[in-house]
Structures
1.
Amino acid sequence: MVVLVVVQPFGCIMIERRDVYQAIADPTRRMIIQKLSGGPLNIGQIVEDSGITRQGIAKHLKVLYECGMISFTQKGREQFCEARLEQLDEVVDWVNASRKLWGQRFKKLDNFLAETKKQ
Amino acid sequence: MVVLVVVQPFGCIMIERRDVYQAIADPTRRMIIQKLSGGPLNIGQIVEDSGITRQGIAKHLKVLYECGMISFTQKGREQFCEARLEQLDEVVDWVNASRKLWGQRFKKLDNFLAETKKQ
DNA sequence: CACAAGCACAACCATTTGGTTGCAAAAAAT
DNA sequence: ATTTTTTGCAACCAAATGGTTGTGCTTGTG
């Protein structure tokens, strides 16, 4: 997990972490994640049929790495890339929490109406 | 990918469909979604304690609307905003599909090793 | 050795993003 | 009738994003 320490105006130090939401926001990165879901690949293999340049892919890999969604293993001159999908739990948890609240919104409205009736 | 061409509230003309991944990529938009999960609110209520200006919020609402994650209802001079969290299914489905594939990666490796042993 | 494969790093570029300020319109309240 | 609330719209801005080309450094291979 990479933490970006940003020194802002007034000498403020902000600690920014790239998050998983940002990681999966881009369609190319989702494609990379799906390719890697099948197992580790080297960068050349990821570039194959991606439609963009190696350097473009490298930038996306950097983002994914900074989110802790992939890890690297050097093997000779090749760099193998492996997915770490545990991070996606955060997204699912957030979605479920929101939907749980959303599912209760009518109940809450009923409670509100009941309360106002009493007064 | 579904492309909707809708000319409706907010003066939005939707030609390309923004996707849900982009909608939840921004922390401010996630905050808005969570606020709305409890039930409909007008724009002023969403702005409350958000730390950014009404116009800033309006831009985020436009994005959320274009993703089909919120809908509007005019009531006098107030514009009420309601969440449509069904859209989040797409995210959960994608995550689950990736994780399913990921869970099978060792099995695949075993199969591969078994195949090569035969030859 | 010479050469190719695989990759990292830097510079550059156009567009998008995420915010701001200012102003105008319409509905409600006084 | 005037003022206040609530909102919409446009212009502006800095920074981030998503790509590109070019260069050069390792590491295997003939």
2.
Amino acid sequence: MAKHAISPTRSEDYPEWYQQVVRAGELAESSPVRGCMVIKPHGFALWEQMQGILDGMFKATGHRNAYFPLFIPLSYLEQEAKHVEGFAKECAVVTHHRLELNAEGRLIPTGKLEEPLVVRPTSETIIGAMYAKWIQSWRDLPVLINQWANVVRWEMRPRVFLRTAEFLWQEGHTAHATEAEAVEETLRMLDIYATFAERDLAMPVWKGPKPASERFPGAVDTYSIEAMMQDGKALQAGTSHFLGQNFARAQQISFADAEGGESFCWTTSWGVSTRLIGGLIMTHADDDGLVLPPRVAPEQIVLLPIFRSDDDRAAVMACCESLKAKLEDCRWRNEPLRVRIDARDIRGGDKVWQHIKQGVPLRVEIGPRDLAAGAVSLTRRDASPKDRQSLPLETFVAEAANLLEDVQQQLLSRAVAFREAHSACLNSQAEIHEAFADTGTIGFAHVHVADDPAVAAALDPLKVTVRCTPMDWEDEPGTCLFTGQKVARRSVIARSY
RNA sequence: CGGGGCGUAGCUCAGCCUGGUAGAGCGCUACGUUCGGGACGUAGAGGUCGCACGUUCGAAUCGUGUCGCCCCGACCA
């Protein structure tokens, strides 16, 4: 028996470990199309859990879902200069609308489009075009819409979940009458992302504004949540953009204000993607594979019946069915527990390891011995696979929700502890160079840096960037280590995905 | 798009240098013995060796081209 289910381990080869976890956990596979992934049922179920929670949070803050076209007229993308610059290099373009068989029996594109269509890399422009039609009066505002969709960005170097040519996401697009309202919206959604990441994904994040060099093309301000992966690198896990009136001016999104004048709207956009799955993996998974926070685990508890004889089988299965029903009557964080009985006729060891690799939070074995004792054998995914405990069945039912909560908290506090252990306040250029010279113990450095191109240029040789300036941190006035400018507080700098 | 590596069974790979048209382990199927932490035995299925062209009596093996994948850079959610 291998010591670990995943080979190589994190310390042996982190990028390869990541790919093996994805594979062993049956989350996704690469596809015949370069840079695109096939999200398998377990991976998609995980995404659906995330979607469900986020969608509820969006709706609770007044947003409604809609759907806009996959194809964007080329001319739309040209409307906002910075936006063009940012996305032009990675657009898939549709130029034809028909295929014809040639003499060799090959299909040849014909029916050239008058105006090429861009497969959306993001939807600001096409949604803005509709908003320009929909919004006429200040009474029409705010417009608060979200869309769940796929987008395409033709990436040079794909990595499953982290950077693929096509990915799934949600993009919120809102229009407001005043700057203050739009800023408030931008920060509200940033907060929702941060809350979701920490409360539901057990993934601690720093949230705050990004420097100009890291801004969304066309935005006035970009805010992000940044999480630390187990190799110390930062993952931008969500972004919220204050677009000012840039798109409104470019697209004539205007309204008759209460004073009788004509004003441009203030707009925002914000999104999280299937990249979160990559973040989840690199935050919690271990050398035995996935470790899922119960809150988003498609199956929170798996019941594993163990039996040899037909008599045992009947009794054990009956016990499992009744236990499942009891557990499903329990609620944790306002939802019924998600329980599966895995009675597949495969070897017990294989079955157990499959659930380990898929990250199921709680495994419960029930065999004749347990039956006789009125007990169950419980193993937590956040503990060692050998760390199995027996407890009375009724106790388990009573404690199941608490156990899930405990696993969830355990994952969060572990991740927080990891981040703290790999973060440090640095106060000189020399310390920064030392910290990032090679793969040291420093992932995030907390430093005073100005929002200035000179900073990005100075950090570039170290492959380090300013991730964000966390808003939750205390003010701590200082001077930029690279430009000498006064800054109010520290920022996070790190290598990143 | 630059630099490096690799395409042989579902997976991981050997064979290639020194051409003679395929092998191992794992997985899969059946049966038996097993079974409370990745079992064992027996029997079996499965590959036009990425693709194309060339050299040759003969190509997985040599040459040219091409496609794809992985790693490192530049770019990005």
3.
Amino acid sequence: MSVTIRDVAKQAGVGLATVSRVINNSPLVSAATREKVSRIIAELDYHPNPTARRLSLGKTLTIAVVTPFFTRPAFVERLRGIHTSLIDTDYDLVLYNVETTERRDAYMRSVPRRERVDGVLIVSLPPRNEDLISLANCPVPIVMIDANHPSLTMLHRIVINDVTGGQCATEHLIALGHQRVAYLSDTFETPFNFTASYDRYRGYRQALERAGLHYRPEYVVAGEHSHAVARQMALGLLRLPEPPTAIFAASDTQALGVLEAAQVLGLRVPEQLSVIGYDDIEVAEYLGLTTMRQQLFESGRRGVALLMEAIAGRHADPVCEEMPVTLVERRTTAPPA
Amino acid sequence: MSVTIRDVAKQAGVGLATVSRVINNSPLVSAATREKVSRIIAELDYHPNPTARRLSLGKTLTIAVVTPFFTRPAFVERLRGIHTSLIDTDYDLVLYNVETTERRDAYMRSVPRRERVDGVLIVSLPPRNEDLISLANCPVPIVMIDANHPSLTMLHRIVINDVTGGQCATEHLIALGHQRVAYLSDTFETPFNFTASYDRYRGYRQALERAGLHYRPEYVVAGEHSHAVARQMALGLLRLPEPPTAIFAASDTQALGVLEAAQVLGLRVPEQLSVIGYDDIEVAEYLGLTTMRQQLFESGRRGVALLMEAIAGRHADPVCEEMPVTLVERRTTAPPA
DNA sequence: AATGGGGGTGGAACCGCTTTCATTTTGGAA
DNA sequence: TTCCAAAATGAAAGCGGTTCCACCCCCATT
């Protein structure tokens, strides 16, 4: 059908091995031969068949990315980082979207197989404990990105320190002079075992403690991840006998709900209420929302770098890299009235 | 290294061919043999090597998706549709992100090759004219999703009729009683030759014409795709001696800019100004923005379906399928004061 | 009882590449 | 000029599947 290495060899009057050497830049070819073969390759518009190459090499030259797409910018940014790092390599990027726990479990078992891929990136998806052992013993290297979990120490991972992030956000508010700081997030228990909200909560607690501020249980609310629910929860907080003067929302989406609540109650932001979010999504800039920014793109890049190292056989022991989180100050936080 | 078909054959005391037949559900195996082989397969935890399979079959069992991710929800939705349709097939989804014209041109040449993939989905990316001919003559089936271009008639494609969409949006405003309707969009000329904005503009013109409304050039503005620029342009429109009573923004992002401009000028929406967007992105619902919704997820599904048909050899001639666009009425449009 | 046909089966070729290994060629030293 | 090590080369053996084809066996037909 299409032109093969045999055609090139015949046409150039050399053996298969020589053509293969030319393709793979082996030094064991004389300049003259190389030149001749290269010419024929160009003439015939020959492209080596990657499938045959993979089979012969015993490698798949393929990296799998397992992640819940969601409809969040964070996913795209991480994926961009991953893709960009893979451009200049031989590796293909094959994608596995997870939207149910069933699919997650199916992929956790079927994707990381020697015959399928050379490496796996699992993004924003903590595995079940049942899968942990098999993942840790898996012959193909695995790197987890953004899946911090106490029991993940046997896996390579790029973590985002949400505890520190939550602490930073809270400290920013405290530094502005706020004494009554509330925390609003999505539920701590989710089907996918996301720990971000809980970690940020822990950071919040730590910041309070360090500042010597009293922890008030009534200042911590959690509910479904949507601006509508966030608004209701924020209304609840702001109608307390002694309402908070600042609210730390565990995501920008929820911060939007808080802003909406403030508007409903006629509270001016930031004069009467400070609001800080988390993620730095696109509209955050538009709305002037102060927030915590993660290095999403960079986390993808680092993940690929680590995975490549693992594939190359470096790292006998699991490596854990931490990505920094930075405060982006905009117009929704200010000292209390 | 890992267990192969040969191991299974030996263990089961049958020939390779028989094991292969069992794997591929060939009817040419007796029930007894099938049962025995299946048991051994399970026992040895055998998984056929996809690479070897591909080489032998002469298929890559791989679909390429070439698309600019951007950081837009629209991308993720289309991709979700594509991925979902591929789950129950043998096909892998490999991803090619395009962020520069150089990459686009490189991918247009290197990706659609027999030895690489069985089919290609090109999403939201009109090819250059130079590439058109080679794409049309390409031995591997190609389906364009959301890349409407007059000269694309020789390629399979799923189109979103932006002319109709633009017309609908405009007609909605006219039906409400607006006589002075403006159109605000991103620039018609882009490095990637996107035609959406221009098509929507044409729809806008058509709607005006049908309603017998006078076209005013000063009511049409275009600039970079961002809410900030959109706000400036909207301010310009609203400060005209005879300002429009309704603005059709070519994207929700830009509609946000319009809303901001209205706020700056103290105009109440929708009482004093109607605004309609396009895309129905996530915040649109949050802000109650009236907008045009595309069937993004479904466009991905249809693209895969069409591609599979093309791979199967149906469709001697290029097929063009049109996806509907629907009006989502929310709280930013109303009859003029 | 001989014949024909069809279902079941296994051997072997093949997919297109890489790589080992044996062989030939080359270049420089003796 | 001879000789040897090093460089260059090609044949062939995989990689792990699929499938063609020849073969065997069994049963129904004549």
